[in-house]
Amino acid sequence: MYAFEPDTLRILRTVMDDVVAAIRPENLDQEQRLLIARRLLTLAAGGERHPGRLKEEVLMQGTATRAAIAEKHRTTVLHEG
What does R_g of the chain's alpha carbons equal in angstroms? Predict the structure, then answer.
């Protein structure tokens, strides 16, 4: 379990809002928001505090995750179809 300073929590909250806005909130369900929050917390636990780098890293990871999900969905549809 990690404990973060109030300034770090403000940064994480701001970056979370920025990431959600960049992806578009209507495209995210609760599970996806939780994954974003976990990524941010993991990065912060590793010492990252720069908002731009946090946002960039989460968005890059998210792009890879969305591609994997899309591929899994495509494979499932092909096997079911």
Answer: 15
SS3 57: helix
Domain extent, residue 67, equals 6-80
CB 44 within 8 A of CB 4: yes
Average pLDDT score over residue span 23-28? 84
Instruction: Establish if 64 belongs to a structural domain.
Output: yes
Rounded percentage of the chain residues whose pLDDT exceeds 90: 53
What's the pLDDT tens digit per position in 26-43? Answer: 878 888 899 999 999 999
Residues 6+ apart with CB under 8 A from 36: 16, 19, 20, 28, 58, 62
Total structural domains within the chain: 1
